[in-house]
UniProtKB/TrEMBL annotation:
This is SECA2. Keywords: ATP-binding, Cytoplasm, Membrane, Nucleotide-binding, Protein transport, Translocase, Translocation, Transmembrane, Transmembrane helix, Transport. The chain crosses the membrane at residues 422-443, 478-499. It comes from Poeciliopsis prolifica (blackstripe livebearer). SUPFAM superfamilies: P-loop containing nucleoside triphosphate hydrolases. The gene is SECA2. One of its GO terms (biological process) is intracellular protein transport.
Length: 516
């Protein structure tokens, strides 16, 4: 107050009070508002309205209360009277974290050869915790400067580490660039994904060496490790021993219908960890059916059963999480299910649809094995498991897809050419030919037999064609049907003969009675 008030040897000056926060500026503004004779201005934001308040020249007795950020870069104008009385008086109401901020604050006055002065006025209670033990401002500044130097040193260490990480990343990017040039399609996607994962793991393993700035050792190690990882990836081997890497490699061969290569890679994934290899077991079963070697149906069934066992772990994990979420929802008193609960419910439903698909495949394999027939597997996108209209389930299907389940499949009996049907068809043709010859070249009973043969022949031709189309035929059923048909024909033929003889006898008797 003494600086801005008039006294016996000079008139008052103008003051700029710089605060650390907006709240502090507002508090000081409210405290000074009633005791300042001149104009007091609160300048806490660098917007147009605030700038217009300080655009005019300050007169003796005027005070601006500003934050450090709002006042930065602002030209505070003062009148000639203020300059003649000592210029702008700057008060820094806090001890800044470093000397630079302090000098910036003091630099608001005494510009371009004009007079001015500055002073720090701070309360010990409002100082930062590290400065409160100081017995004087000078001691607090010494502590401040020491801490600032330590902070700068730490930051320089961080910068050094960042530069090292940048150099290592540049080396990795060169490897990626070469992969992009020499690969394409699914091969590129899988190899890049594997290399990205390898890069992340490598950084974790080498974190201590990075902190110790072992630049040359790290660069040599990275080149060697990237070369090995790339070679392993190119030969369909996971440098990180990841189930999903082998599954992705297997899917590439699966798309190319290279069943043996695909099955080999799925088998590697299965051996990594059987508990979490449901997708690998499932896809291996598909390849086994496609190869159709040896007792392939038994092998495919075993793979599907192991896939179901592995899927149970995922289902149980999901159900446990869902139960905890529901318990938390009950405790919170929320009536509607949370988005997380809905997501976990959809995930559980997706697993059930997948499990149902596996169960149906196993049942169909059992049916086909019982018949002694061969099987085929028809694949479709994993998204076909659920309705297109259910967005939540489609998202869960996409989650399975990203983990390597590109396709699901159904098992069907393999269509085959029915030679039995061809034999029956040829028998039918012979019957038709024989029946036609009897009908044309004979009369009476033989002609009737010929018509019966034609009828039976047509029936056998139809049955033979049906069998060749469907691949289904049973000699037993054909023989029973043929026996019944022939029996009916014989009976019908015998009844016809009796009726005919009875008609002739009656006709003879009538003629005899007429003569008498």
């Amino acid at each position: 107050m003494s600086q801005i008030s008039s006294n016996s040897y000079r008139e008052g000056r103008a003051a700029l009070v710089i605060c650390e926060t907006i709240n502090t500026a507002k508090e000081i503004y409210e405290e000074l508002k009633s005791s300042i004779k001149g104009e007091i201005i609160l300048y806490s934001r660098s917007d147009k309205e605030s700038l217009s308040k300080i655009d005019k020249e300050l007169e003796p007795g005027d005070v601006i209360v500003a934050t450090n950020l709002a006042g930065r870069g602002t030209d505070i104008k003062v009148s000639k009277k203020v300059n003649s009385n000592g210029g702008l008086f700057v008060i820094l109401s806090f001890l800044s974290e470093n000397t630079r901020v302090e000098l910036q604050a003091f630099g608001r006055t005494a510009r371009k050869g004009k007079p001015g002065s500055a002073q720090i006025i701070a309360c010990t209670e409002h100082l930062q915790h590290d400065f409160r033990s100081a017995t004087s401002l000078e001691e607090a500044k010494i502590t401040r400067n020491r801490l600032a130097a330590e902070k700068i040193s730490s930051m320089m260490d961080d910068v050094s580490e960042m530069n090292l990480r940048e150099d290592l990343f540049s080396e990795y990017c060169e490897t990626l660039h070469d992969i992009y040039k020499k690969t394409d399609g699914d091969d590129r996607k899988v190899i890049v994904a594997i290399m990205n994962e390898f890069w992340g793991i490598w950084l974790q393993i080498k974190s201590e060496d990075i902190e110790q700035r072992k630049k040359s050792e790290l660069q040599q190690s990275l080149k060697k490790d990237l070369s090995v990882a790339r070679q392993e990836s190119s030969s369909q081997t996971s440098p990180c021993s990841s189930i999903y890497h082998y599954i992705n490699f297997g899917n590439i061969f699966l798309d190319d219908k290279k069943w043996e290569n695909s099955a080999r890679l799925f088998d590697k994934a299965m051996k990594q960890d059987k508990s979490w290899a449901a997708i690998a077991f499932y896809s291996h079963a598909y390849c086994t059916i496609q190869l159709s070697k040896g007792d392939y149906l038994t092998q495919a069934k075993e793979d599907l059963q192991k896939a179901q066992e592995s899927l149970k772990y995922l289902c149980e994990e999901c159900l446990v999480c869902l139960q905890f979420i529901k318990m938390a929802s009950v405790d919170s008193g929320k009536g509607e299910p949370s988005s997380l609960e809905k997501q976990m419910t959809s995930k559980c439903s997706m697993y059930r649809f997948f499990d149902k698909n596996i169960t149906e495949a196993i049942q169909k394999i059992d049916e086909i094995k019982e018949k002694g027939r061969d099987a085929i597997a028809k694949k479709s996108p994993v998204f076909s498991l659920v309705s297109d209209a259910d967005e939540a389930l489609q998202l869960e299907a996409d989650n399975l897809y990203s983990r390597g389940l590109k396709y699901v499949f159904s098992v069907e009996e393999k269509p085959r050419f029915c030679w039995e049907g061809l034999v029956v068809f040829l028998l039918g043709v012979l019957q038709i030919v024989a029946g036609a010859l009897l009908t044309v070249f004979t009369v009476g009973t033989l002609a009737q037999i010929g018509m019966g043969l034609i009828s039976e022949g047509i029936s056998d031709c139809i049955e033979g064609i049906t069998a060749m189309v469907t691949g289904e035929f049973s000699w037993k059923e054909w023989a029973i049907g043929k026996a019944i048909s022939i029996g009916v024909s014989i009976i019908s033929f015998g009844v016809g003969k009796i009726i005919s003889k009875g008609f002739k006898a009656a006709k003879t008797a009538i003629k005899a009675i007429g003569k008498n």
